[in-house]
Structure to design on (202 residues):
């Protein structure tokens, strides 16, 4: 029987947790499964028939900081792999970036993972070619508007209130794109009568 590596199981769990085609309880169970491996020092636990459940998303915010850092790294590693950007150099940059986050920044990143904001951003960016030009420009403006003061004015040392505000802006912006997409998908397509399919010229 082939040896099962801890990281392979973790990647499988995190990959399932980020699979938006799965039911919510399956994704939550996968996230709990990944956490259980990390929390128990990386040892695989024996399978039981009782599936782990998360009844309150706030429970995921109260994990030990070291676990949050591990889980955030795993989540973003899976995202990089999904985007085809998981080269050793990119993984090294990711690890360094996570290690440089303040405790508050790290908790905000983890919250964005848990509440689905990161998944929504990834989904939007993977389908960016299908977005209207004005949405593409809005995305550029959003990240430039947040990144420039972060690096230029604050030198990476942003007050907690401003960090929380920025995270909310990003969350609301991408949630709005997702809601609009779902609305367009569910809205029945109105077809013009044959006589109106071509508008008169001039």
């Amino acid at each position: 029987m082939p040896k099962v590596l801890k990281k392979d199981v973790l990647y499988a769990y995190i990959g399932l947790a980020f699979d938006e085609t799965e039911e919510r309880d399956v994704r939550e169970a996968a996230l709990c499964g990944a956490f259980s491996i990390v929390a128990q020092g990386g040892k695989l636990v024996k399978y039981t028939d009782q599936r782990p459940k998360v009844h309150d998303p706030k429970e995921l915010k109260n994990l030990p900081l070291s676990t949050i850092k591990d889980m955030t790294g795993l989540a973003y590693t899976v995202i990089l792999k999904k985007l085809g950007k998981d080269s050793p150099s990119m993984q090294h940059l990711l690890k360094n970036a996570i290690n440089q986050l303040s405790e508050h920044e790290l908790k905000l990143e983890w919250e964005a993972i848990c509440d689905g904001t990161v998944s929504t951003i990834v989904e939007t960016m993977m389908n960016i070619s299908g977005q209207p030009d004005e949405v593409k420009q809005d995305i550029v403006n959003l990240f430039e508007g947040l990144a420039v003061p972060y690096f230029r004015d604050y030198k990476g040392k942003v007050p907690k209130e401003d960090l929380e505000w920025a995270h909310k802006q990003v969350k609301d912006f991408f949630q709005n794109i997702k809601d609009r997409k779902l609305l367009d998908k569910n809205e029945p397509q109105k077809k013009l009568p044959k006589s109106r399919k071509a508008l008169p010229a001039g």
About this structure: Residues 160-186 form the longest helix (27 residues). Residues 29 and 50 are 10 Å apart (CA to CA). Residues 116-187 form one domain.
